[in-house]
Amino acid sequence: MSVDLIRFIIFAGILVGIAFVALTSAKFRPYLRKNPAVAFLLGISSGFPLTLLVATLTFWLAKVGLDTTTIGLAVMVGIPYTIKFLWAPLVDKLHLPLLHDRLGQRRSWLFVIQLLLVFSIWQLGASDPRPGHLSLFFVWALITAFLSATQDIVIDAYRIEILEEEEFAHGTAANQFGYRTGNLIAGAGTIYIASAEGLGLGWALGYGLTALCVVPAILGALWVGPGKFVDRYAGASGMGAGQWLTESVVNPFREFLSRHGAFLILGFVLVYKVGDAMGQAMLSPMIVQLGFSDLDYISANKLWGFGALIVGSALGAPFVLWLGMGRALLISGLMMMFSNAMFMLLAATGNNYWMMVAAIVTENTTSGIGLTVFATYLSGLSNIAYTATQFALLSSFAGVGRTFMAGPAGYVAEKAGWVGFWGFTIVAAIPGMLLLWTLWSKGYVVEGIRQSEGVDEKAMKEPVGALRIIGFLLLLAGLVGVLLSQQLEAGPSWLYASLAAFAVGGALAWKRRVAA
Q1: Per-residue model confidence (pLDDT) at position 72
Q2: Are 30 and 166 in contact (CB under 8 A)?
């Protein structure tokens, strides 16, 4: 029995267990409601394309004998996911002719993008990845990545808009369950369909059949309806080009930066999971150095750890309802922070299988709780008038902390040793906790799920000003530069210039709110 099949059995068993508990526990009962169930279906459709483009695609390329340098180029298809916030305003505000009035903003975009996505996945699967044909192959891979990232913009916004306050955290967790279901289908499932050791149907049919994973989102969208999309300018006919661009592109950023504590919130989003990200980056190298066998690590991380992550994710939703958002963020952050002490013990103990299992289970359980809590918080930060744009921006911004800021992990591990490294990851989490405490004490983190309600219409109709528009553009350019610095393997001058542009742009774009 393969590891992926065992993981699927574990995953399915845990979901059945959650459903059983939900029948008897009020804290878990929202998992059985319609909207969280639809969030699960949306997650399946959101989760499968990225796995097709990264894990499954690189496996396919290796099978046809391409060199590692060429395979490494496949990582470039992840760029659209990194910078998807750049075209999120179009998804937020542009009405699709004929379809908008019949289906609503989110569903019309979802169905059109999914139709194009199915076509591009079929074309990708039918392409020839061997030398001489790679150009067309990678063109279809990039088109699929762009459409998949756009689908994520729509699904994230739609999920936020269909969920009620009391089921928001459960819907967020259910969406993550669906996402992992899509991952499993597009990983082990596609390979099994295509491989000669499985069904042997070939890659074209393997990719083509996997493209049917768009169906759950279609069914969910038809079931739940258009959602609570807020159209602040229903008719764009009376608006000039400048007015439309201001409302669609500038105002989502202006609304967020005009909030009290906006830059403190962005700082918290940036550093909250830095310690956890540093640990994840160096876990595998430490396991190898401690002399664990591949099978030991696979069973501990891919099976025990996977189950613990799913359980932790499920516990995150009642955790938020029980404690409120502020306490849930603080306690889950402290749990993730101190769970790394288990890896300090593992590093000191050495090659001990059950110590490794205990450390991984502890870390994955706390990370699962923290993931649900943090994703719920990010979703609640998004104003429902600009859902797609603000969530895409915030999720990309959080990615800076998980990637760029975790970069020094290898250097610290080399200089401090493994025990010292894991101690450093605990210390690295302290700034995030201090920022959270500051936000909470100042009232910038509310106890409810939705952190932002309504729009200050008067403020949004004020002239933006040329200097402030330049600030918004610099801020976006700087963020894009930082996000792409690792993927493009750019030099330090690129990174420093991007950071400078981001800082200067933020200073110009920010406008302090004056109390009435």
Answers
A1: 63
A2: yes
